């Protein structure tokens, strides 16, 4: 349902406001090609404007090429207009963003929508009060500057604290091998732009983290998916792929893999590292969800000690996504390259935010907070598993912790159209195809257990699954 | 003077601490190829360690290839070791970072060093108290979340406020044409990665903003400098360059140009836009320093109304560099491309920081703050001009405001070696060559008037200039 905020008091005519609002929805792919615009009468009543105004706005959108009119049937979003040639990046750019609409939907401030497929926890699960308390404490300290640039690598005491944190994972590292970044995403971005050139082959998890895929494509990388099994990346499949491809790097999740919540086993880790050695590629280990894991887990960086592995972490999921504090750890000469790129692309990260994370880590809040979240997630996960089974879905394995359940919709060719249907009912689902390197069809959905227990989801699944049973959903 | 922080209580042996500390200085180019390490005895006394420890550390650095030993003369930093082939980006990467060492020095937390060449104001000039007060106010508001992701474009009320701010500059824009970014640097970065491909020709100001040059090089752009004159980019020179080159874009500063503090005139603006139209290239107008300008000024975006111009702004220089709040404004279909790239490369920016800037803007603090800074800068600039003239330098034109004075060192071929000499006396200068697209020699220096009145600078110039007079300084 399209809801624009129109303002009759604005100097901008209502027609212009409608045109601009719908255009933005189309540009952001909240309205996608082929979707029907609301009927003129319905739109006029909902927004308390005259029907003539709506007709004029729709006509203008047709003239602009954003909308097509089908006689007797209504107005539909047109296919996306390409930019003039001089402004288009390679064709890869278009492909890179096939799924950006999912992220817009996730980030959109739409409290009424049930975000059952997002990759983070609801605000009410987070320690808002702890963050605010430390914010206030920090803003009272005379030695803290909130107005100047941070240092190139980021706040040193936090890097020293990360040294201790990584030592607990069995990863030995000096503070000067660590760079603080604008979230884990910027850490991955720095690695990519330093080491990947157009046309390079890059290995990724299949399924894996789709925002990473989009970024790799933006740099012209050629993505090759390494199938995951219950032990991590499948070493036999990896070995077979290496007969054909000469990858520059392998980007992978070891602990609480996104989207399956599976873990890497020591045996699989050993074989992956052996193959990396033999075929001389770098491994980038993204551990954004690892802190949710209860008890010890196997990380590639623990075996390899940052020789061939670049380790990426974040506090976005556990502490605050807003503070945008992530980091990478690597061997010294790579660190020097990476910090050059950090400076050139963003100058520095916020030392104030880094000090805040440091306070939360050192005052014991962090550990308690994470333990509390682990318990709450475990409870929500087991209830989500039961709900999904009741609804007729087939959860994949037993999640090892974390916020995701990866579940198959039996008898469906591709869950993407189920997700499209759910969106119209105000429920945001993450279909398996977006987690695949080439967006291949997938019968899976990723559920976020912190959102999945909302009654609306079970009700929707109960109503919708019979409609989709046996359908391939590919047109 | 090399100062490491050694800790005798640390489990890490002192030798390891020295090796790691010096290695980091070399990797970050605080120690550069050819520079001499402190004599063993001096280092030992300064750091209160035994001479054997220093000898062992220096020997280890020689073995690692970081340092060379010259018989009878001491230890010198070796040329930088190349990375193994598999890890090297194109040769452009190395060139892109020729000057990154300047930024490391600028960002380094070295209170004893006089940063007479940096591109921002000292912390004591900034409204620390205002920022902290609003930080506390914000952290008490129950409707503000400090733990969740912001929206794709950034906090909407701030974008609406920017619409008003840009309207004061005569630039008409809708909030949905604005993207909030992690500083102006990320805004420039987003434009570059969306529109520039390896091998593309890109026009830049000569002299101009060197961190931008490094980023463009990182993407493989071919930089062509457009000479600046007192009216802005020289239109005749630009026209001549366009006979030979087909640029994709022109990145330029219009108001209080960095490094000369000159302004664009309406006539030059008109000719630049005419040429952009005729030769079909985009203009990216960086206005990071524009708010320091007292009274009206000419901007390309004002004439062009964001048709061919992408406008970039920031609050880093006036309000807080730490908050990392910048923005870009552009026409709608470009905005859709740019926000895709923002999501893919950093997911979102900090809404908390954006709310803070919004508060500062709407409660009247910002305008008062900027007016106060303008007055203080004007006073410091006129005193800096007199000091530089007393010292025998030739300031370039009359600065129109802002924090920079661009001054020539008469009779010198390249001011870079004067800057190298000054660094050894604890004074950081910015030599003209780093502001040139190919780092061509330049007899100019950029001074920051907020730092330049420190007595140490006048004393140093008085002592050093006679030593450098008549020297080309190129070896």
TrEMBL record, chains A, B:
- CDD domains, alphabetized: AAT_like, WHTH_GntR
- One Pfam family for this entry, by name? Aminotran_1_2
The record, for Gene3D superfamilies, names: Aspartate Aminotransferase, domain 1, Type I PLP-dependent aspartate aminotransferase-like (Major domain), Winged helix-like DNA-binding domain superfamily/Winged helix DNA-binding domain
**Which spans of this chain does the record mark as coiled coil?**
none
Q: Where is the HTH gntR-type domain?
A: 12-80
Keyword Cell inner membrane belongs to the record:
no
| Listed InterPro entries | Aminotransferase_I/II_large, HTH_trans_reg/aminotransferase, PyrdxlP-dep_Trfase, PyrdxlP-dep_Trfase_major, PyrdxlP-dep_Trfase_small, Tscrpt_reg_HTH_GntR, WH-like_DNA-bd_sf, WH_DNA-bd_sf
Keywords assigned: Aminotransferase, DNA-binding, Pyridoxal phosphate, Transcription, Transcription regulation, Transferase
Task: Spell out the molecular function terms from Gene Ontology.
Answer: DNA binding; DNA-binding transcription factor activity; pyridoxal phosphate binding; transaminase activity
- In terms of superkingdom, the source organism counts as Bacteria
PANTHER family tied to this protein: HTH-TYPE TRANSCRIPTIONAL REGULATORY PROTEIN GABR (PTHR46577), TRANSCRIPTIONAL REGULATORY PROTEIN (PTHR46577:SF2)
Give the family this protein belongs to, as stated in its UniProt record. In the C-terminal section; belongs to the class-I pyridoxal-phosphate-dependent aminotransferase family.
Q: What is this protein called?
A: PLP-dependent aminotransferase family protein
Species source reads: Azospira restricta
């Amino acid at each position: 349902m399209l809801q624009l905020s129109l303002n009759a008091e604005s100097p901008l005519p209502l027609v212009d406001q409608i045109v601009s609002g719908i255009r933005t929805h189309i540009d952001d792919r909240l309205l996608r090609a082929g979707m029907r615009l609301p009927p003129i009468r319905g739109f006029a009543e909902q927004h308390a404007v005259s029907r003539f105004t709506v007709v004029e706005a729709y006509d203008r959108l047709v003239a602009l090429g954003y909308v097509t009119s089908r006689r007797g049937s209504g107005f539909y979003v047109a296919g996306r207009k390409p930019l003039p040639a001089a402004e288009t990046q390679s064709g890869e750019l278009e492909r890179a963003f096939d799924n950006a609409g999912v992220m817009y939907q996730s980030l959109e401030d739409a409290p009424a929508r049930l975000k059952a497929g997002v990759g983070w926890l609801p605000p009410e699960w987070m320690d808002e009060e702890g963050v605010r308390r430390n914010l206030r404490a920090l803003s009272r300290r005379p030695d803290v500057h909130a107005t100047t640039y941070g240092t190139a690598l980021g706040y040193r005491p936090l890097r020293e604290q990360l040294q201790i944190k990584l030592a607990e994972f069995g990863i030995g590292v000096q503070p000067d091998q660590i760079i603080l970044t604008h979230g884990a995403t910027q850490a991955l971005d720095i690695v990519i732009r330093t080491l990947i050139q157009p046309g390079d082959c890059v290995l990724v998890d299949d399924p894996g983290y789709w925002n990473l895929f989009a970024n790799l494509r933006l740099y012209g990388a050629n993505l090759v998916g390494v199938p995951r099994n219950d032990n991590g990346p499948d070493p036999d499949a990896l070995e077979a792929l290496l007969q054909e491809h000469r990858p520059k790097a392998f980007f992978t999740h070891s602990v609480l893999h996104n989207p399956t919540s599976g873990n890497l086993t020591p045996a699989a880790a050993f074989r992956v590292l052996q193959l990396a050695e033999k075929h001389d590629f770098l491994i980038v280990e993204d551990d954004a969800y690892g802190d949710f894991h209860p008890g010890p887990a196997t990380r590639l960086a623990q075996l390899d000690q940052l020789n061939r592995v670049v380790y990426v972490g974040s506090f976005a999921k556990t502490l605050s996504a807003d503070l945008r504090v992530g980091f990478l750890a690597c061997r010294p000469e790579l660190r020097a390259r990476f910090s050059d790129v950090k400076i050139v692309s963003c100058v520095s990260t916020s030392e104030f935010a880094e000090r805040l994370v440091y306070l939360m880590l050192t005052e014991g809040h962090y550990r308690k907070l994470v333990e509390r979240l682990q318990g709450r997630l475990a409870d929500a996960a087991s209830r989500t598993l039961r709900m999904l089974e009741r609804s007729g879905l087939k959860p994949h394995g037993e999640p090892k912790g974390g916020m995701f359940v990866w579940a198959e919709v039996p008898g469906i060719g591709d869950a993407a159209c189920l997700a499209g249907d759910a969106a119209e009912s105000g429920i945001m689902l993450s279909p398996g195809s977006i987690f695949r390197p080439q967006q291949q069809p997938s019968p899976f959905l990723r559920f976020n257990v912190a959102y999945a227990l909302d009654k609306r989801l079970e009700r929707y699944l109960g109503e919708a699954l019979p409609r989709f049973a046996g359908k391939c959903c590919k047109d």
